[in-house]
Amino acid sequence: MKQIALDMDTMGKIYNKTLVGFFAGFILPFSAWIWEFATKNYPLIFRGLGQMHRDNPVLWLLDLIPVLAAILVYLFYVQKEQKALALLTELKEKEESISRNAAFAKKIGEGDYTADSEEVSQDDLLGQSLLLMRRNLVANRKKEEEQNWIAEGKEIVANILRLNNNLDELTYEVLVLLIRYIRAIQGAVYIYSEEKNTLVNFATYAFNRKKYINQEFKIGQGLIGQCAYERDIIYRTEIPDDYMTITSGILGDKKPKSLLLVPLITDEKLQGVLEFASLEEEISGLTITYLRELGEIIARTIFNLNINKKTEKLLQEARQMTLELRENEEQLRQNAEEMRATHEELERSNSQLESKIKEVEIAQKRLHSLLENASEIISIYDRDIKPKYLSPSTTRILGFTPEEMMAGKDFDRLTPKGDQDLREMFSTLLKNPSEPVTIQYTFIKKDGKKIFIETTGRNLLHDPAIEGIILNSQDITERVRAEKEERMRSKMQALSENSIDIIVRLGVTGKFFYANPMFENFTGLKAAEVSNKTISEVNMNEVLFEFFREAIKKIKAEPEKLNAELTIALAGEERIMSFNGIPEFNENELESVLFVGHDITEAKRIEREIQDKNRKITESINYAERIQSSILPNSYFIREFLQKSFIFYVPRDVVSGDFPWFFHKGDNIFLAAVDCTGHGVPGALLSFIGYFILNNVVDHDRELTAGEVLDQLHYGVRRTLKQDMADANARDGMDIALCKINLKENKLEYSGAHRPLYLLRKGDLQEFKGDRKAIGGIPHRNKQETNFMNYSIDIKKGDKIFFFSDGLPDQVGGEENKKYGAPRIREIITTNPDFSMEDYHRYFAADYEKWKGSYKQIDDILLIGIEF
């Protein structure tokens, strides 16, 4: 038991009891002394007491009894008091532990999971249980916070997806939100284009700023293309050397430390790829989970926007024309009434003028009043086409006063054609005075508004009251517009009646206003049978009935166009219909809904067939690319033999007609850049022929020079393609730049077909031109062929060689849309003589992308560089 110090009062009590024990223990030796004094007559003095002990030594042991008794009593009471004190201490500690645990439990109950409890012993089961409970609560709370974080992020993104119909704006806003939400520093959105079969950059954002970057990636090209091809998240913490760097005023140029690419897939269809870069060492698993779950939501929205965009374009013109007809129908009727009223008024005025021509004063007053309020302009011109009079109605109709018109505005405000027509009318009236002439032309009013004018001219030069050419002009703008609308209405009616689509107009109560003949073909109901009836009153297809009913309900709640695909059983066959519901308004009030249904059954079938064929073709090409990639050497393999080297290789399509060829035999290294006729699948097939013939030529006992290798390749291609036969018509072949390198002897042999070799030595560039003939092709019947030239070069330390296909020189781009050109390649090599091979690789890759810009890649690209 743990020894516990006792206080002074307790020790005093123990000392007293010890004295009592001492004196109680003294009884036995004292009795023995008395017995000895009584029986043996020892003198009752100290000398007698000493003699007694000498004679009987046992008495010494009896004398120790009081001391032992005192010690036993002392130890007994000390132990007893310590036990009691220990029990009190233990009880106090338990009370303190209970109080501490109660306070700790209270903090946990109040939600304070960060509160620290004092060190809890292993024996404190309650304390250990509270600690375990806190850990569980913290873990559950963390899990709940993570789930809430994901749910909140989804909800924010969902709001943006719901509110945006423009794909450019939607991708940019979603990208900005996600970068801020997951605390990345840069991101991009790539949308998959089915037409181009590429991933196109729609939005890029970095360091709180929008970036304008035009990038496209083929499926399988780069990390973006790889993510799209694998259709799975790519998470990289080891970033490739040629990956982009992040530039900011504070950080300078820094490469991202972690990279996350998320495919956007819905219904097993690729819609795009999200790319995020971070300066953090890792991207949390919670962020990856969030983006994985969000990817399908974004993909579904992009898919819907693309579908809506296609269907909306098809109906836009019909909807616009219908709206214009509806808006102008009432105005047309009113204008017609006004025109009839005006015409009647004009006839009455003319009748009054003819009957009362002799009443000059009254007639003049009445004429002035009529002219001032008339709907037409009356003007009089002399023989020289100079205006003599314009009625007061000129100001109201044209905006110019009669004085301004007489000062030259009558011809200044005409179009060139109007000016010509008006002058021709005067010429005709002068030649044929008895015949009136009517013309129509455009006049620009004082406020800049164009109106249509109809003018009727009469030659009254012989009339002494007029002595001029009188013109009656009226504004026929509304009539012209009404005629145009009537023509449009007729065209729309004809289009509707002969349309292969179902066209139905329903009121907001479901009442039939119109149904074209195609409606009967799909429902068996004639337009006359359903006219002025509601959808509930006619016996129609249940699927179509439910669609009409729900569509009207939705458009009444939210007046926007909607689209739906319906599967309808027709004559025992299921037909797929694409229906659009278009709200129609009258004075901002929903009046009816125009439904246009198009049979897309055959289109759907063709679409599925095309998708299946495209998938099979794509799978075949991708498989061919894997085969081609597996047999061709890469930079890492070649560097095992030529440490300072690079291959800049960019196929135009998935498979390539250009390919690097490498062969190691003894002390010799063979390396070539081969450019086959064509690109893509045809070029790739020819590349296999060249690859295996080269292997067979080099892999035999006799040692060949570089020129002899090309001679053997030349005849081998001809034999394989049967170009040496009399009826040969296959002119396919290849260009090549071939090097044979012996590092032990420091020797380089070079031979080329249409392709040169550049040697950079101490800043000077030397070009070795290839022969002006290709590998393969139909031989010239009357011309003896020469063997390929073989160049032998002594290699020196620091020498750099470059050889390439024609893909890079022929690439169109730059500001003036010119070819990249061999001079640009030579300039890059000579102006950067201190570059390492890795520096040249990066420079050529970046310069090529900058030069190409938004232009398409026109051919496969292959450039090889070696430093000795």
Task: Supply the key terms.
49% helix, six-stranded antiparallel β-sheet, alpha+beta, 868 residues, 32 strands, seven-stranded antiparallel β-sheet
Can I get a quick summary?
With 868 residues, the protein is an alpha+beta fold.
Can you describe this structure?
The protein has 868 residues and is α+β, with helices and mostly antiparallel strands. Helices cover 49% and strands 24% of the residues. It contains 24 helices and 32 strands. The strands form 7 sheets. Strands 1, 2, 3, 4, 5, 8 and 9 form a 7-stranded antiparallel beta sheet that branches. β1 and β2 (198-206) form a beta hairpin. α6 runs antiparallel to α7 and α20 (680-698) crosses α21. The protein is flat, with a radius of gyration of 53 Å. The relative contact order is 0.04.
Helix and strand layout, with pairings?
Elements: H1 8-25, H2 27-40, H3 46-55, H4 58-63, H5 65-109, H6 125-163, H7 167-182, E1 186-193, E2 198-206, E3 209-211, E4 216-218, H8 222-230, E5 234-236, E6 246-248, E7 252-254, E8 258-266, E9 269-278, H9 285-355, H10 360-373, E10 376-381, E11 387-390, H11 393-398, H12 402-412, H13 416-431, E12 437-444, E13 450-460, E14 468-475, H14 477-497, E15 502-507, E16 512-515, H15 517-523, H16 527-530, H17 542-557, E17 562-570, E18 573-586, E19 589-599, H18 601-631, H19 635-638, E20 645-650, E21 658-665, E22 668-676, H20 680-698, H21 706-720, E23 733-742, E24 747-753, E25 757-761, E26 764-768, E27 775-776, E28 791-794, E29 800-804, H22 807-810, E30 812-813, E31 818-819, H23 822-831, H24 837-852, E32 861-867
Antiparallel strand pairs: 1-2, 1-9, 2-3, 2-4, 5-8, 6-7, 8-9, 10-11, 10-14, 12-13, 13-14, 15-16, 15-19, 17-18, 18-19, 20-32, 21-22, 22-23, 23-24, 23-27, 24-28, 25-26, 25-29, 29-32, 30-31
Helix pairs in contact: 1-5, 5-6, 6-7, 6-9, 9-14, 20-21
